[in-house]
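Entry:
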Amino acid sequence: MRAFLFLTVCFLLVLFGAPFLGPDAGESQTWVFWQLRVPRVLCALLAGGTLAVCGAVFQALFRNPLATPFTLGTASGAALGATVFLFLAPSAAPFFPNFPALSPLVLAAFAGALGSLALIFAIVRLARQTSTSDILLAGVAVSFLYSSLIMLLQYLSDPTQTVRMLRWTMGGLDRGGTYSAVLTLLPWVFPAMGILLVHHRELDLFCMGDEIAQSRGVPVRKMRRTLLVTASLALAAVVSVCGPIGFLGLMIPHIMRNLAGARHRVLLPSAFLGGAILLILCDTFARIAIFPDEIPVGILTALLGGPFFLALLLFRRSPSAG
């Protein structure tokens, strides 16, 4: 409880302090503050929290500390769907102009994420393998395939499109500095987070193994797919707005388990706060470090996540080495 309260205080400090950080915009400072910085911080809040919660859910469902939406391929599928849209119809008109949550880019990301899940489970079914490790291996293979297709589309595009797609695949919140981006995320993020939190007991049981979960009355296959689809839809919305931002879903769940415990009733809200704090801080640094240019925030999270990933591997191997 103390850790959760500490996280809440840090979250509030970062949330209300980050918009004030940055170069003075002179006479337009008020407009920049309310129309650019505030929505950008809100977007970072929703995106960072969602990525962290999805990482915690995937790690529970597959009982693997290295499982993330990126290793399973759903994030790569969403990125491929969005990249295909940027390649084929970058200027397509929105279907519902007053409802940005159903923009063509968002729907393309949804199609990519859900198509990725369908392909992974089809591969596993054809191979007659049902273990979680086999699902993860299929996800890694699909993720590599999608990454190759994204690079192919970048190569086939004209120079302007190539730069746009390359910049988008680096991940960033420069496109999230609008209230439209916030409204794109809200209808998907909050319902998904609510559904995942309601099933905290099932996630706790998944961590103990499929057999124990089934003995406690959990419909394992149906529940796993339901939670995967729920997390993937929220993740696809984030990818459509911010691009693929990696490693948050890996780092934050591990940190929060050490601070707040492994029970998902507390872990999921803690992960949401922790992910929001980290992404807001990274984005704030990204936009002021080399002003007037900015660093894609996906590069910063990768710089943090790479060493964290290696440290996690070394930590897991150290007991046997000793």
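The radius of gyration is 19 Å.
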